[in-house]
Amino acid sequence: MNHNTKEINKRRTFGIISHPDAGKTTLTEKLLLYGGAIQQAGAVKARKAERYATSDWMAIEKERGISVTTSVMKFNYRDFEINLLDTPGHQDFSEDTYRVLTAVDSALMVIDSAKGVEPQTEKLMEVCRMRNTPIITFINKLDRDGMSPIDILDDIEDKLQVECTPLSWPIGMGKNFNGVYNIYNKELHLFKAGQNKNISDGIIINDLSDSKLDDILGIQSDELREDIELIEGATDPFELDHYLNGTQTPVFFGSAVNNFGVKELLNTFVEMSPPPGPRAAVTREVSPYEEAFSGFAFKIQANMDPAHRDRIAFLRICSGKFTRGMKVLHHRLGKIVTFANATIFMANERENVSEAYPGDIIGIHNHGTIKIGDTFSEKEPLKFCGIPNFAPEFFRKVILKNPMKAKHLHKGLTQLAEEGVIQVFRPVATNDYILGAVGILQFDITMARLETEYGVAAVYEPSQYNVARWIECDDPKKMDDFEKNNKNNLARDAEGAKAFLTTSEWQLEYGMEHWPGIEFYKTRENN
Known about the structure:
By secondary structure, the chain is an alpha+beta fold.
């Protein structure tokens, strides 16, 4: 086995998905603690927290206690190199999460034991299903009273249409929570409330009829025996192939805030989850084991370091090996570019990296030339599939408080549009800036970032538009006629693509009926 193959097989690149408040950020921190990437966990308590999770770095995230950007963190655990992508759980950021899920090989789904499957989890699961992403499930907050474990499994199977196979099982819950039985390793892990570290490593119980179980658990030992007998009869056995093709999810129970069940989850995760796999490009499938380098940008983040006004493009390596100073073809521009330096993200630290392998996420300094979906390769021109923009559902008009700041406003909105946070449309008939987003929280965040990062005081007001579609036509004359007749509804997005903005679905349908040669698109892949 050559060096590159060894390195690729060591990689695990995954995203954490959940509904807001299921405990995702807390679980992320505990995983980083095990990997030695951070020394101290800062509990995230909405607005009251004095110290915030290392994965929530933006001011507005701290203020609201939610994750709104996607953090990328790398750490080592055992002999594995782990790239963890913490995705925004908030529904207003589903676009960002969608793009992140194009860059991972598997996912970890966090579910609150009291609430079961929530709406945002269902949406995220749809994205995973589109790509047959393997998912491991962690049922969190067992130290609080919640739904019965059987009911939670039924809820997951019913709402998410995925087969559940528990690999651990809780002993009690809430005040009576005493630990979990690890079905996979036949071990008992005992829970002591408030004990964050050094929880017993596991008592081997090869046979549940062992009287040692009664000595340890008392009356709960019979409950455990009954539960295990019941689930062995009612659930399908774990099949690695079914997990890897996304039809079965192994389920673990625990309490992230108490650091309980996290180590067992992580141990199983690194053993089971897939190393980097092949990626679909327009022309062919690209294997991670190919020698030639290739990768794609799935996220742009501006001003991660306010002191340096930097923009970072997050790049997923798909094949070959990255080395500092290498020359690659930037497919969309048709130009050779040099990757002079790249960054990896070790929790809240950034480090320059001299080499990286498939599965790794690297940050490339970007001066406005890299866009989401851009592909880089060493030899042939490649275009990786499936990183779209979505038609916005909400629209607002930007009002600038100080007209002298018009240039700053233009620069700020252009850069935020590059990140994919919002979409910016310029109507052909006016000089307005119309913002489009898939969630209304985006508008508050855009105004806050314009002020803190670009020194622009602006507000937004309702817009007359409620629907947007990108438009294309093979016949230039027909497009010309359409544009002349629909001047008040025409706009261009931040990349110059033509868009049709209208007040209602009815008006959109009317336009589509009257202009049969014009194609109206709800999504647009970056070219």
